C-alpha cells in the first residue's frame, strides 16, 4: 500500500487544497492521514484543515533555524526527529495529524538548506502506522525535487492547473521524480480548477508531453472552495464537487496498488 505521497506543482495550482481534500477522503475510508507541511513560506494550511491555530513547527521546538543547523552540522538530525516524536510535534484534530517543519520568519536568516535536510531525514525515518497515509505538502516549483526531498516517498501527485507553465512544470517534475527512483506507475497527474472544455485542452497538453498515461483524474473549479479560501475558512469537511472528484482520484490511486 502507498504510505507516503508527496504533492507538487506550480505555485497556486492547488496543492494545499488537494492535500486537505485528500486528507478527508483518506479519513472517510477509515485510514489516518498525517499531513506534513514542508512549505517554508505559506502559513495557511492549518486553516484549511480546521486547526484553531498554527501548530508549533518542528523548527521552532528546536530553537529555530539555529537549533536545527546545530543538529545538522553534528550529523544528528535522526536524534532530533526521534526527540520530536517524543515531544509530540504532530498535532491531531478529528483524526488528522499535522506536522509543520518550519517557516521562514527572519529577514536575512539564511537559506532553507537545514529545513530541507530535516524534511529528507523525516521522510526517510518516519514509519507510517498500519493504517496511516502521509501527505507531504510542498513549496511551489521543483526545487524540493532537485534537492531530493522525495527520495523516500512511495508516490508523487503532480497538480496541473490550466496554464502552459503548469504543463511545462509537470514535465520537469515527472523527469525529476523518475530520476529519484519513483516508478512511473506511482507518479500521478491531476488536473485542477477545470471545467470539461478546459480539461480537454489540458489533456491535449499532457498528451503532447507524453504524460497522459500518468493522468489520475481531474478536479473541477469549485466556487465554494475559492470562497472558503478567500475567507480563510476550513475546507476539510467540504463535500461538494471538488471533494467528490478527489474521492474518485483516491479510489483510482488505491485501486492500482
Ligand atoms: N478546485 C478548485 N476550485 C476552486 N478554487 C481552487 C481549487 N483548487 C485551488 N483553488 C484556489 O486556488 C488558490 C491556490 O490554491 P492552493 O493554495 O491550494 O495552491 P498551492 O498550489 O498550494 O499554492 P502555493 O504554491 O502558493 O502553496 C486558492 O485560492 C484556492 O482557493
Ligand atoms: Mg500551498
What does this protein structure show overall?
The structure is a single chain. With 257 residues, the chain is α/β, with parallel strands linked by helices. The protein has one domain: P-loop containing nucleotide triphosphate hydrolases (Rossmann fold, 3-Layer(aba) Sandwich). Strands 3-4-2-5-1-6-7-8 form an 8-stranded mixed β-sheet, with helices on both faces. Helix 1 packs across helix 11 and helix 4 packs across helix 6. Adenosine-5'-triphosphate binds next to helix 1, strand 7 and helix 10.
In brief, what are we looking at here?
This protein has 257 residues and is of the alpha/beta class.
Strand and helix map with partners:
Blueprint: E1 4-9, H1 15-28, E2 32-37, H2 45-48, H3 58-61, H4 64-73, H5 77-86, E3 91-93, E4 96-100, H6 113-125, E5 132-137, H7 143-146, E6 155-160, H8 164-179, E7 187-194, H9 196-208, E8 215-220, H10 223-231, H11 241-256
Helix pairs in contact: 1-11, 4-6
Bound molecules: adenosine-5'-triphosphate and magnesium ion.
The site of magnesium ion (MG) has 5 residues, from α1.
What ions, cofactors and ligands are bound? adenosine-5'-triphosphate, magnesium ion
Strand content of the residues, in percent? Answer: 15-25%
CATH class, please?
Alpha Beta
Structural class: alpha/beta
The major beta sheet can be summarized as: 8 strands, mixed
What's the arrangement of strands in the largest beta sheet? 3-4-2-5-1-6-7-8
Cα separation of the termini: 6 Å
